[in-house]
Design brief:
It is built from 5 helices and 10 strands. With about 220 residues, it is α+β, with helices and mostly antiparallel strands. The strands form 2 sheets. Strands 1-8-5-10-4-3-2 form a 7-stranded antiparallel sheet.
Length: about 220
């Protein structure tokens, strides 16, 4: 369970490093399963401009270790303080693993949802140490509270956002392998560029609270 301070931080800032951490053996199991599918280029796969496989999707339908980790107490325990006791782990949003290799290209700031309708919470599982140098996640605190955003991607190209100076307030969030960060799906965020010779591996899963107005039992 989260403390009141931690819950308030998430509500006001839009992101929170979870207080729990994945055990080393779980991290190694996840990395092994991801590397195996990336090396074999098991579809669906996304490739970068150099043709390297950098993302595998549909994680929860691949190796059982992904669903077991996503539904573990280390994840669901803290999330229950934000979403309540009945939580959905989504297959149609996120549900992928990413390799961030050396590149001078930096991701664009984006949102995972355009507007708040039914809250989506994203958890990024960091499987290698992430630093400013190898492209840690950058967030713009508080931007999940902004209405009127009409696009998901390339937020810097929206004139009022560009003129506001908001993106200059971005905060890098370096973490260690095994740590997890929960973000509100509408916060402005991006992965930084990797200027090292190593990789930065992570996986991403989306969660929602079960609709309290749904009457039908859903196991």
């Amino acid at each position: 369970m989260l403390t009141t301070y931690q819950m308030n931080h998430f509500r006001h800032c839009g992101y929170l490093l979870l207080p729990t951490r994945l055990p080393d053996d779980v991290v190694e199991g996840l990395k092994e399963a991801i590397r195996k599918d990336i090396d074999a280029e098991v579809e669906p796969v996304v490739r970068d401009t150099e043709g390297r496989p950098v993302r595998v999707s549909g994680l929860l339908d691949r190796h059982p270790v992904f669903e077991e980790t996503g539904a573990s107490d280390a994840v669901v325990g803290p999330l229950s303080s934000l979403l309540g006791p009945n939580i959905l782990m989504l297959r149609n949003r996120h549900n992928h693993a990413t390799m961030n290799f050396r590149s001078h290209k930096r991701d664009d700031f984006h949102r995972d949802n355009v507007q708040w309708s039914r809250g989506l919470l994203t958890v990024i599982f960091y499987l290698e140490d992430t630093t400013v140098e190898n492209g840690c996640t950058e967030v713009v605190p508080g931007t999940h509270l902004l209405p009127g955003v009409e696009e998901l991607h390339r937020l810097a190209d929206i004139s009022w956002i560009d003129n506001s100076g908001l993106l200059d307030q971005a905060v890098p969030v370096p973490v260690q392998a095994g740590q997890m960060m929960a973000i509100d799906s509408t916060i402005f965020h991006r992965a930084g560029s990797n200027s090292t010779d190593g990789s930065r591996m992570s996986m991403t899963i989306g969660y929602q609270s079960v609709d309290e107005l749904a009457d039908a039992p859903d196991p």
